[in-house]
Structures are given as C-alpha cells and as structure tokens.
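Q: I'm writing up a methods section and want to include an example of the input and output format. Could you take the sequence below and give the corresponding predicted structure tokens, formatted cleanly so I can copy it straight into the document?
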Amino acid sequence: MDLAQVARWADRTALCLDFDGTLAPIVNDPDQAVPLPGVPGVLGRLVEPFLVVAIISARPARYLAKRVPAHGVRYLGLYGIEELVDGEVIIDREAKALEPVVQEARAALVDNPVIRAAGAYVEDKGLSVAVHVRGIQQLDRWSEDIRTVVSETADQHGLDLLSGRLAWELRPPIETDKGSAVRRIVAESEAERVIVVGDDVGDLPAFRAAAALAAGRGQSLRVAVSSDEAPPALLEEADLVVDGPEGVVRFLERLADAVHRS
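A: Here is the clean output for your methods example:
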C-alpha cells in the first residue's frame, strides 16, 4: 500500500472507523472501554485534511463522543441508527418507534434466570440491548443456554439478533447497518474514496459497501484488525490487516504523517 498516494486523495476520502476492538481494546466490562491514549490526537490531525472522519459503532452516539472527543469527527451510533449532530442525537424514526419493544426485551433478559445465574451482562443502549458473556466463569457450560434465551427473546419481541465477539445484540428490524451508514456518509459528502477500519462481524457490511464503491466510481481501502477472535471472513475481505488497536493507531499515525508531508 502506497500511503503517500492515499494521502494525496485525503480531501476526497471518507475515513470510517469502528470503536470497540479497533480504537479501544476489548475489555470484560463494556462500560470500562476507552480508546488508546493516542486516538483523539491522531483523529484531530486527520479531520482537517480528510473529507470526512467518522466513528461508526454499535455504541450510542453520545458514548462515542464522550470517549473519543475530537472536534469535527462524525459520531454514528447503534450501527448508524443515530448520529450526534450539533450536540443533539438524531434518531431514525422507525427505530425510535420500537424503543418500547426493545426495553421490554431488555427487562425480560435482565429477569431471566439463566442470564442471572450465568452472570451475563445486559447492556442497555436505549434503542438496542446487548448481552455480553465475556468474563463469565464456566462459559462452556452457559454459552448455549444463553444463546437460546437471547434468540427466543428476539423472536418473541420481533427484534433482529446480531452476533459479535462474545456478545449478542437485539435491535429493531430495520434496514440499517454499518454498510448503510458508510453509504450515507459517502453520498452526503460526495466522497470518491473510502477507508473502512473494523474488527468484527458487524463491520462486514461496511467492508462490502466500500467494495461496492470501488467497483463503481471510486476506490476503497478495507483495514481489518486482527485478534484471536477476529472473524475469518473479515480478514479474507481486507486489503490490509493490522495487529490490534495498537496497529490501528500506528496506521493512522503513518497516514497522518503522509498527509501532512503531501
């Protein structure tokens, strides 16, 4: 990869980044996730030269802005269901209408005896709910039972079920994912190129949106973050593989250096 060439196209490029496992190391307690120390600074260096710098995550938009404060960055939360714009969270209307259903599912999961006995963590995201099994003692004993409970709860409430790294997420059944979020950013900015960086199954739609752009009028760079839990499909579809969030920061720093040299 010629970073100098990538840098020369910065003013026509959208840079789209995941959060957990990409900018922030994966931790047992999701509430304790924080980006690596160099992240806000390097994003600040990239905002001006790049057409768009965006964080697209399963996290809520306000959470992202609080954890990664960098002026000029776009924060798209819950796979693009919401975005923080001028201090206000703009929410997809269809998803907002289903928030009571999501909260009913959350309550059912919190009260479920299997979830309670296993010690799984139920994360309330407002418009979605995630069940995390990282850090559970005797995970082999509980994993299948938890998966069954989560799947049945999603079916009972008419919600979509997404699997991730030792987590399941229940969300409104709408046509919004990281792929549609990338397409929206590209369309709104009229970007001719896109760089997508991610580490999990949820980033595959973003990779495929980038590939579709490359097959059409633009070009793309798909960067996968490797780990022991990285899905093989993501690594196979990547143009570049980096080693953990530390590798992401090194890539972004090299990219920022190349942009400023150019």
